[in-house]
Amino acid sequence: MNDKKIIYINLDGFSYSYFERIKKNGGLQRLCTLAQEGMLFKNLYSGLVSITNPMQSAILSGAWSNKTHNFYQHYDPVTRKVIKHFRTFDAENIAEVFVKNKKKVVSIHQFMLENNPCREGEFDCAYIKANALRSTYLERFSILKKLILKEPVKSGDKYFVYDEFPDLVALYIDDLDSLGHNNDYDGYPKRHSQEERFKDIEKRLKGIETELVSLVDLCKAEGIYDEVIILVTTDHGMTPFFGKSMLHELIREINALGIKADTPDTVDDGTQVVALPYTIECSLYYQKPLPDDKEEQLTTLLNSLDYIEMVFPKYRMIDEFGFDEQGPQFLLSPKYGLHFYHRDLDEEYFGASHDSFDETSQHIFGLLLGGSVLPSECDEKIYAIDLLPSVLKHASGLIMKDATGKVFKNWFM
């Protein structure tokens, strides 16, 4: 059997809740029809912490932060500084595996592969960006279509024509994420209500749907559909939040136990616990070890607070979510609509982010297409790190050496 080519499309911020709601209202019918040709993942989940760079690297390597060492940020009690992880990516990724095996790779805006290993101007391992300064899904899908049609594509200052479709093409689209955060984006203003913003997201999803259908039609017309596996997925969903931050209330409650808690910018020699917020969630680090009785009091307090939905102690994050040892003693996910952001939100607008354990952030969209994909719906609970190890194994028999995701063989014929 000849190796399959892989087209990996990441639609950043595509919450499964979007798909369910629009489908229920009669929308995205062409995407639903397309899904009947492939495998729709109905129970696919992101991980901890569900933020773009950590989750993009997790998907690309099939591994959590104990391998990638990216969970966005951590507090270092020695230097008393917050260490941002940016594009830290220490696990072997799928593009590196292909390059190591003399296969051709193209990354279209998949930034976690930029210079790791894809580079501008390298034919066998090209990094390609659209010409537009702030490109959208249209310009990026256009590059993918040019690759299929064997038309020139620009990488850096060079133009390449691929007479044979590359072995791996990774395409990154961030329209849904930008809109989901309720930013000013591509002619859409910041909105006052969730309903207004959802209409924007629905409209953009219809455009993306058109491109996905067009892509599949083009693959069939060019005779490569049976030779490719197309994975369409995302890194996380999106959860709204409103009004007052609970950060200072949390710190007050901890201090009331006789445990001195501070934010990183106010740490002093007496600080025992450091509260490091993300946007929605908050992590707690020990500046100095707590006595057993105080740790027990803290644990009891955190589990009793009515504004916290989930308390993740360090051992659980490590055991269940493959978390980096440098992670916090506790990760706190608030109830829907609440947040631990470093400031209160303007009451005139709502905010939205995805560092949340709410279903709207954790439950994500995923779809497999291609001639070798078994047409069905997958109801089994799977995680984002399971996707590419399974696809890679079927496509070429290769593995990523740091991958810890499960390999599912029953997705394919």
What are the defining features of this structure?
413 residues; alpha/beta; 8-stranded mixed sheet; 5-stranded mixed sheet; 21% strand; globular
Helicity range: 25-40%
Amino-to-carboxy terminus distance: 12 Å
Approximate shape = globular
User: Which regions are unreliable across 5 or more consecutive residues at pLDDT < 50?
Assistant: none
Enumerate the strands of the largest sheet in spatial order, edge to edge or round the barrel. Answer: 7-6-10-1-11-20-2-21
Number of helices: 13
Label the structural class: alpha/beta
Quaternary form:
single chain
Mean pLDDT, rounded to whole units?
97
Question: Major sheet, described briefly?
Answer: 8 strands, mixed
| Total number of strands | 22
Radius of gyration: 22 Å
Assess the beta-strand content as a share of residues: 15-25%
